[in-house]
């Protein structure tokens, strides 16, 4: 019993640490990506020194190099937010106003519990799943948490005692509800193809081969579903070009009355949601931790060649594959964020209700017809 608990805590800590590190990395990536798009150098001035008894010269040299790359800016952001005054609006509800940012980040982090990050690890005859919670309906669990996350946004707007913040919260709620429907419906075709809602089984079945040589990844079976899902999921993150709830040019949003670390928690939630979208896209449509032709015993190629791989190397390759795919999608989302202009509100609603939602319904119909015809004529 205690061993199981310790294993779960270790896996949970590893997943949480990885997600928070990726979220923190995005502060650096966002600055550098925007600088690249705008022909600038980017952040390079955050720097501090340590006394001689903590390493002195060599450590300061490393810190100077890290500061020149802009990596220490993330630490500077945290220090700045922690030292700022935490203001509670005079007309706001203190408890709910404080609860809102914690609700947002909590549900965003909790969704990672159902995502498998690697193949099962076998140590001392014990199989350790690299998944915090192996839930039969893991996909529904994630979608449910995504829908609950809207409460943090609504609370932030309603409890600030500010009409403009309330409008920002309502805009965010309407946007998230509009795109959650298209997001959920876009995954029905994928579930029909693989016949399960279990996230672990969804990833495992993408390790099979079509026609003996092509990986059975979700993007090949459901290309339209993948496009609709990624678009709707990006809208759920409320970032450019879907940043209508914040309205940065107008300086109006649901967190207008927030300051200090509570303001920082909303930004952390945005970054965590980007990691979540990247992880879900990887797990559902791009094989998850699967590496083409890699089986538990090693690489088995279509032409018959076999390359043995030790178990620990097999697990390591799976973890590396998942991480590389997630980082690649984070970069891709950053590229979109710094390339496209924001939509008008009517364009945003038109895209969600009149394009993505009908397209996801059409995808279900076509998928059903193809499966029925294929089963009738094997």
List keywords for this structure.
378 residues, mainly alpha, two-stranded antiparallel ribbon
Can you offer a commentary on this structure?
- The protein has 14 helices and 7 strands.
- By secondary structure, it is mainly alpha-helical.
- The protein has one domain.
- The strands form 3 sheets. Strands 5-6-7 form a 3-stranded antiparallel beta sheet, with no helix packed on it. It has a two-stranded antiparallel ribbon with strand order 1-2.
- The longest helix is centred in the first third of the chain and has 36 residues.
- The radius of gyration is 23 Å and the shape is globular.
- The N and C termini lie far apart (48 Å).
- The relative contact order is 0.12.
Brief account:
The protein is mostly helical and about 375 residues long.
* Structural class by secondary-structure content: mainly alpha
The major pleated sheet works out as: 3 strands, antiparallel
The residue ranges in which pLDDT falls below 50 over 5 or more consecutive positions are none
| General shape | globular
Strand order in the largest sheet: 5-6-7
Round the Cα radius of gyration to an integer and report it.
23 Å
How much of the sequence lies in strands comes to under 5%
Number of domains: 1
**Cα separation of the termini:** 48 Å
Please work out how many helical segments DSSP would assign: 14
Mean pLDDT figure: 89
Any chance you could write out the topology, listing elements then pairs?
Blueprint: H1 2-37, H2 56-69, H3 73-83, H4 94-110, E1 121-123, E2 126-128, H5 138-148, H6 150-158, H7 163-186, H8 188-194, H9 199-205, E3 209-210, E4 214-215, H10 218-221, H11 223-236, H12 260-285, E5 294-295, E6 298-300, E7 306-308, H13 311-337, H14 345-376
Helix pairs in contact: 1-12, 1-13, 3-12, 4-6, 4-12, 6-7, 7-11, 7-14, 8-14, 11-12, 11-14, 12-13
């Amino acid at each position: 019993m205690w061993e199981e608990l310790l294993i779960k805590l270790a896996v949970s800590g590893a997943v949480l640490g990885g997600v928070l590190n990726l979220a923190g990395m995005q502060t650096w990536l966002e600055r550098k990506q925007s600088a690249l798009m705008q022909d600038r150098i980017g952040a390079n001035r955050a720097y501090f020194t340590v006394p001689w008894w903590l390493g002195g010269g060599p450590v300061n040299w490393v810190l100077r190099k890290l500061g020149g790359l802009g990596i220490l800016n993330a630490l500077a952001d945290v220090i700045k937010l922690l030292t700022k005054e935490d203001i509670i609006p005079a007309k706001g509800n203190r408890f709910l106003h404080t609860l809102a940012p914690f609700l947002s980040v909590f549900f965003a982090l909790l969704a990672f519990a159902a995502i498998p990050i690697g193949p099962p690890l076998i140590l001392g005859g014990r199989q350790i799943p690299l998944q915090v919670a192996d839930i039969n309906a893991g996909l529904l669990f994630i979608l449910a948490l995504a829908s609950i996350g809207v409460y943090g946004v609504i609370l932030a707007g309603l409890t600030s005692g500010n009409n403009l913040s309330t409008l920002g919260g309502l805009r965010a709620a309407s946007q998230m509800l509009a795109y959650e429907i298209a997001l959920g419906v876009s995954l029905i075709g994928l579930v029909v193809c693989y016949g399960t809602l279990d996230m672990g089984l969804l990833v495992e079945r993408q390790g099979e081969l079509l026609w003996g040589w092509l990986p059975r990844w979700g993007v090949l079976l459901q290309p339209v579903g993948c496009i609709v899902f990624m678009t709707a999921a990006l809208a759920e993150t409320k970032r450019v070009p879907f940043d209508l709830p914040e309205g940065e040019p107008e300086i109006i949003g649901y967190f207008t009355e927030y300051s200090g670390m509570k303001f920082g928690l909303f930004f952390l939630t945005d970054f965590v949601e980007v990691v979540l979208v990247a992880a879900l896209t990887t797990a559902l449509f791009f094989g998850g931790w699967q590496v083409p032709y890699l089986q538990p015993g090693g690489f088995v190629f279509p032409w018959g060649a076999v390359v043995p791989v030790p178990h620990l190397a097999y697990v390591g390759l799976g973890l590396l594959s998942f991480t590389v795919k997630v980082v690649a999608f984070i970069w891709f989302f950053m590229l979109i964020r710094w390339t496209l202009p924001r939509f008008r509100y009517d364009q945003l609603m038109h895209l969600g209700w009149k394009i993505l939602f009908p397209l996801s319904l059409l995808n279900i119909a076509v998928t059903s017809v193809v499966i029925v015809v294929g089963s009738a004529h094997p």
